[in-house]
Design a protein that fits this description.
This protein is α+β, with helices and mostly antiparallel strands and 272 residues long. The chain folds into two domains: 16-89, Winged helix-like DNA-binding domain superfamily/Winged helix DNA-binding domain (Arc Repressor Mutant, subunit A, Orthogonal Bundle), CATH 1.10.10; 93-261, Beta-Lactamase (2-Layer Sandwich). Helix content is 41%, strand content 18%. Strand 7 and strand 8 (211-219) form a beta hairpin.
Length: 272
């Protein structure tokens, strides 16, 4: 089985009893990640399936309109039904549009790339990237999955879900594949408590790409998590202690402004 880039891969949280659904989900994820149509053998190799099993799944998905064949007929790509889902999803409340002004102001104030992310199970997904205006900048793709336990965006998204939902998700997080598994539940619980106290999370350079990140929550009128705002930081701006104080202050101030726009009354703490 080939290793996929963990920065693009969506984690699997499926229990064995829903193996067929999990395999289907993995195929759809892989097709979504692929820049071009892929063949049956490529799907089988990357996902660790037999060629006949991959072929059966693709045939069933084709009948449902979830995948379609390319013009040459031997390769597959996402079908009309997934495109329809995308159009329906695009009609949902447009958080990047509603919060665009304070997020763009945060980008320009710090000269750094800013992301708006939403919860995706126990993880987070990038809804929009406000790329820094400098010639050398960090750009992040819309739709990129930011996964636990390493992503600060995902940690914030997890921390501000309900206690019952966190308990339910943690059972899956402890059994996921190695790249996405929470190995030490006690330590992870302590991290979550710290995020709930401080309202932000950060990380060093996990994948040796020359950057890290800091993230904080935005709340809606029901005082529920609406989204997560993330600042992309160069590695030389991070230390073993924390990101620069002015960056965290600007991040929390922006998230409080965004929360006010969504009619939340939550007051954010002053960073220590």
């Amino acid at each position: 089985m080939n290793d996929r880039d963990p920065r693009r891969q969506a984690p699997s949280t499926a229990a064995p009893t829903i193996e067929v659904v999990a395999t289907t989900s993995a195929i759809i994820d892989f097709l979504a990640e692929s820049a071009a149509p892929v063949g049956v053998q490529q799907v089988a190799t990357v996902l660790g399936l037999t060629k006949s099993r991959a072929s059966r799944h693709l045939a069933n998905l084709e009948r449902l309109g979830i995948v379609t064949r390319s013009n040459r007929g031997r390769r597959f790509q996402l079908g009309w039904r997934v495109i329809r889902w995308g159009h329906l999803a695009s009609a949902l409340p447009d958080l990047p549009e509603a919060l665009g002004e304070p997020l763009a102001a945060l980008r320009d104030k710090l000269g750094l790339t800013v992301l708006i992310c939403t919860a995706a199970g126990g993880d987070a997904v990038v809804r929009r990237c406000f790329a820094a205006r400098s010639a050398i900048r960090i750009e992040v793709e819309t739709g990129l999955m930011l996964s636990l336990p390493h992503s600060p965006s995902a940690r914030v998204a997890f921390a501000f879900q309900s206690r019952e939902r966190r308990r339910e998700l943690l059972a899956h997080l402890k059994s996921r594949e190695a790249s996405f598994r929470v190995e030490d539940a006690d330590n992870f619980t302590e991290q979550v408590a710290a995020i709930q106290r401080d309202y932000y999370s950060w990380t060093l350079d996990k994948f040796d790409l020359g950057h890290g990140a800091a993230a904080a929550p935005v709340f809606d009128f029901e005082e529920a998590l609406a989204c997560v705002v993330t600042i992309m930081l160069t590695s030389d701006a991070l230390t073993d202690r924390a990101p620069p104080r002015h960056v965290i202050e600007a991040l929390l101030d922006c998230c409080e402004q965004c929360s006010r726009l969504l009619r939340s009354r939550i007051r954010f703490p002053v960073p220590q």
